[in-house]
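COMPLEX REQUEST
Ligand: 2-acetamido-2-deoxy-beta-D-glucopyranose
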Amino acid sequence: MQCSWKSMVLLALASIAIQYTAIRTFSTKPLSLLCSVGLAPTGHAVNCSLKDLTRLGQETLQGSDQGCDDVISHTMPSPSLSLPSHDASKRTHILILATTRSGSSFVGQLFNQHPEVFYLFEPLYHVQLALLPRLAQSRNLAERRVMLGAARDLLRSLYHCHLNSLESYIRPRPANHSTDKLFRRGASRSLCSPPLCEAPLGQEGQSLVLADEGECVKRCGPLNVSLAADVCRAKRLVAIKTVRIPQISDLRALIEDPRLNLKVVQLVRDPRGILASRIETFRDTYRLWRLWRATGRRPHNLDLGQINSVCEDFLRSVSTGLARPAWLRGRYMLLRYEDLARFPLQKTRQLYSFLGLVLDHSVESWIINNTRGSSDLSSRQKFTTVRDSAANAENWRVKLSFDMVVYTQTACQPLLELLGYKTVFHPRELRNLSHSLVEDKMFLPFF
Ligand SMILES: *[C@@H]1O[C@H](CO)[C@@H](O)[C@H](O)[C@H]1NC(C)=O
Ligand SMILES: *[C@@H]1O[C@H](CO)[C@@H](O)[C@H](O)[C@H]1NC(C)=O
Ligand SMILES: *[C@@H]1O[C@H](CO)[C@@H](O)[C@H](O)[C@H]1NC(C)=O
Ligand SMILES: *[C@@H]1O[C@H](CO)[C@@H](O)[C@H](O)[C@H]1NC(C)=O
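STATUS: Structure written out below.
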């Protein structure tokens, strides 16, 4: 009953859903894509795809996927991989749930630097581009749900190293499983190291990749997606960073999937810091905010939704996480960017211990190299992580006007309280950097 009702609604969303379905239908391996490839023996393929189609409708239309999905996980044969690689069910899968300009590149590096991690930087970019090219920031609920369904399916495939499911979304469509259009490939160390890249890249391809992402793309040639999948399977962990999943509840189906063993690190940041950073980075989209800062007058047509949605999504997710529901037990860690900036090593150790991993010395060394040094504010790369993180975390206090700060903190009041960010009442208080606006607060994972 439930499912058929949802299928009806699905039809109403045809304009997007059909495109999504088309992408899946023309995929080289539609059945295996649907069934988290390779886990189902061929004999079960048809059954599985039918059920999975139901699941597609379900996932597409509902935030907290249950019902049909439960049927799937109970009837699906358990994984018995015969790959010369790590058993998928024993691997740890990591999702960094973030929003733009919340410090997610930095957190991504904490995994990217680990030699046993296969790291993907923002693969969902391709889903968004393929499904909603002109609605990059869609707040339309129906569209968001369709996209989330697609995003979840893709994440599930990627964690199983089925990288070819990503090919369906890349434009132009890769020929012969080879592409030079993978978004921010250079941000992933594995994708820029042998065997995926045979070009000499300095010391084992590390430092150069970080120094300049573009260098990887230039020197490594097109990415062999099949080979990348082999590399993925040979690693013990897959970590994916995304800013395209709004709330933790959107991930519930994946978190509850016993085959995935997914752990989510939710990265949050003071929304006033996010705003300041976005104004610098997304100059067109945030043009009116710059105008406000320059003139001292708030433009009447300012899009306040830009910051309100950040606070709404954070508030919902964090409230969910802090309520400690059973489905998040041992699977959720809240991380304030400011804490990571102030105590990078200590926080990274906590992070790794939550994931049940040993902190590799290469990660430690990367942290030491990248959290000291001068803060190079005229840095070449917008998304560089190489800077004095501690100095940056609170530098919004000298970048936003007092009015803008007041506006933002009023709009985000409940969130600020929940996360322990102090409200300011006077410009003097705002600019006095010798007292921090970040309360000492521990957000420990629960088990
Ligand atoms: C794909 O590979 C085949 C055989 O190696 C080759 O003939 C063909 O030109 C390739 N196609 C493209 C678009 O590169
Ligand atoms: C990509 O790698 C696979 C091995 O995984 C190899 O068989 C194939 O020839 C490679 N493709 C290209 C275009 O190099
Ligand atoms: C850290 O810096 C040292 C000295 O510049 C360098 O030898 C080392 O490779 C760097 N480590 C990482 C992980 O970047
Ligand atoms: C800045 O804050 C510190 C600590 O709260 C305080 O001692 C100091 O007087 C303040 N400075 C100014 C100029 O307000």
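REMARKS: The longest helix spans residues 141-159. Confidence is low (pLDDT under 50) at residues 8-12, 26-84, 373-386.
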